[in-house]
Amino acid sequence: MEKRKLTVRVPTDVLEGAKQYARENRTSLTRLVSEYLRQLTPQGDFLTDTPIVRRLAGTLSRDVSVEDYREYLEEKYGREA
Question: What is the dihedral of CA 30, 33, 36, 42, to 10 degrees?
């Protein structure tokens, strides 16, 4: 994917808030802006493309089934999920 440079002028407080958010979420301003702009023009499966889904992808073993998760919830909360 070809990338291009973009200059954007925003109020200082907005920029500082965005920088802090990026630091806290271990990402960059470039990625934040790119993800926001990508959401304005939906392409493909919107759930697959969301940052949280991408961040969580691969955190569970492929051996974990839906039934395993149900059993975990039942054990954790003491009732059927």
Answer: -70
